[in-house]
Design goal:
With about 240 residues, this protein is an alpha/beta fold. Helix content is about 30%, strand content about 15%. The protein contains seven helices and ten strands. Bound molecules: fructose -6-phosphate.
Length: about 240
């Protein structure tokens, strides 16, 4: 794993953008994207670069990690809405080329199979990830099998609490979500994982130096051929780099 330590969030976002720009040299790149607060600085830089330098996303396809079950794409807490408001509506990507699980799908098994087929048809050049304080990637919580594919999960209390900041009350946080599985994530050619803040330091330690174990889902990335971690100094505090 390549490790880049950034002095602050701005530098983390800049370094992430440099990697993304390299991938975007292919005008038909397939991007695996994430939601959450960590990638927002990167998305702002992608938007600024599109506006200032004309980088085009017309041939780009984007596949997202996860979506809350039960939320319509128009719900302002859905991840589809997040992607539109923070990135897709601000660049020239064709929305028909953006993929995310359908949170309203009634037949969940069929929806997971549909999404796995999309992932198989669109090999990702890069998969962007954040990391949970408990080491989760996407909504793959501790204990998720490394060979998992798209599935529906019950969110842990820890994740519900972390995500409550985006909702009016904790009760509004959906309890279930669709998520790419760990195998889907590691199938990407390149993985870029971003970690910011002291509350991620233990998870980052497990990601980089811990045992590769399903108890810390991100630890599987130690085995990926092309994984880059960018951490700010707070998140990197325990890895001694
Ligand atoms: C987002 C996702 C989550 C987040 C993680 C970190 O699509 O799947 O795994 O990446 O919870 O979230 P933030 O960046 O908000 O700290």
């Amino acid at each position: 794993m390549k490790i880049i330590i950034a002095k602050d969030y701005e530098e983390l976002s800049e370094k992430a953008f440099e990697i993304m720009r390299g991938v975007l040299e292919n005008p038909n790149a397939v991007l695996g994207l994430a939601t959450g607060s960590t990638p927002l600085g990167l998305y702002r830089k992608m938007v600024a670069d599109h506006l200032e330098n004309g980088t085009s996303y017309k041939g780009v396809r984007a596949v997202n990690l996860d979506e809350y079950a039960g939320l319509a794409p128009t719900n302002d807490q859905s991840y589809r809405y997040f992607m539109r408001s923070n990135l897709f509506d601000k660049i020239d990507i064709d929305l028909n080329n953006t993929y995310i699980e359908n949170g309203l799908a009634e037949d969940e098994a069929a929806e997971c199979a549909r999404y796995n087929a999309i992932l198989a048809a669109l090999p990702r050049d890069i998969q962007l990830l954040g990391i949970g304080a408990n080491g989760h990637i996407a909504f793959n919580e501790p204990g998720t099998p490394f060979n998992s594919e798209t599935h529906v999960v019950a969110l842990t209390e820890n994740t519900i609490e972390m995500n409550a900041r985006f909702f009016k009350t904790k009760d509004e946080v959906p309890r279930r979500a669709f998520t790419m599985g760990i195998k889907n994530i590691t199938d990407a050619r390149k993985v870029l994982i971003l970690a910011c803040g002291a509350n991620k330091a233990k998870a980052v330690y497990g990601l980089v130096k811990g045992e590769v174990t399903e108890d810390l889902p991100a630890s599987i990335l130690q085995k990926h051929d092309d994984c880059i971690l960018i951490a700010d100094s707070d998140a990197a505090a325990l890895i001694g780099e």
